[in-house]
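Regression test case RT-17, inverse folding.

Input:
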């Protein structure tokens, strides 16, 4: 019965949002509601910039919030974060449970910087306990949060995940492909999980000329924590760069 009430309430909320999109607002309503949204967005940008301005070189770990702590993906993500800290990097995650928790846990265990960019969601999520308290930032807007990921990361480790992980992956790929940001390394962890998608990229996206074959070189596919960290290290050693802390 309780589950039925939740589902009913959720359906009513969704219907209300759809109906509101078709309501014709007068100018006073537009000014009052949209202006406050602008100020809220600005405040989230300001908080993010202030807290992360001197964060130092960091690598972001993306992945599913639904991954169980006993799953091998969780353990791999934790080990990757642990090794990244020992190689001089801080770790940024989306701040929630699952893979995000694993990333923050590994960084925390290694004594490194553990950053969480949390997002308020209806069913999930709250900040995990392994984030440095002063480095936990919560957002209402996905697009503001994604700017923070991109602006303050020197690389992206992408563990298995769902729609949110895919969104973050394709965002990073698009920005690099269009040269809006530098060509930071993107590492997909799990050949079995990601292999089918990469094959589809080759056969369909390249075959239909939706992307260039060279665009696939933006992606590094690995299986182990050592391989993942090596991609990051090799990239920066090639440019004679190294972490500054």
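Golden output:
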């Amino acid at each position: 019965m309780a589950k039925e009430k939740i589902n009913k309430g959720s359906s009513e909320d969704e219907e209300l949002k759809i109906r509101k999109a078709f309501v014709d607002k007068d100018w006073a309503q537009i000014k009052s509601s949209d202006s406050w949204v602008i100020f809220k967005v600005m405040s989230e940008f300001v908080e993010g910039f202030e807290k992360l301005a001197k964060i130092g070189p960091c690598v972001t770990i993306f992945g599913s919030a639904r991954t169980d702590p006993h799953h091998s993906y969780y353990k791999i993500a934790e080990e990757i974060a642990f090794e990244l800290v020992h190689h001089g990097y801080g770790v940024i995650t989306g701040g929630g449970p699952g893979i995000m928790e694993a990333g923050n846990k590994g960084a925390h265990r290694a004594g490194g910087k553990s950053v969480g960019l949390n997002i308020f969601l209806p069913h999930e999520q709250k900040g995990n306990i392994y984030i440095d308290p002063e480095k936990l930032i919560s957002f209402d807007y996905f697009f503001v949060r994604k700017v923070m990921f991109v602006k303050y990361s020197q690389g992206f480790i992408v563990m298995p995940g769902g729609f949110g992980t895919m969104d973050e992956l394709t965002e990073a790929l698009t920005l690099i492909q269009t040269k809006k940001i530098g060509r930071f390394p993107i590492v997909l962890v799990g050949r079995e999980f990601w292999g089918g998608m990469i094959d589809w990229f080759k056969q369909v996206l390249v075959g239909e000329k939706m992307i260039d074959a060279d665009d696939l070189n933006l992606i590094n596919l690995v299986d182990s924590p050592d391989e993942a960290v090596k991609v990051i290290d090799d990239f920066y050693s090639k440019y004679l760069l190294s972490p500054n802390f």
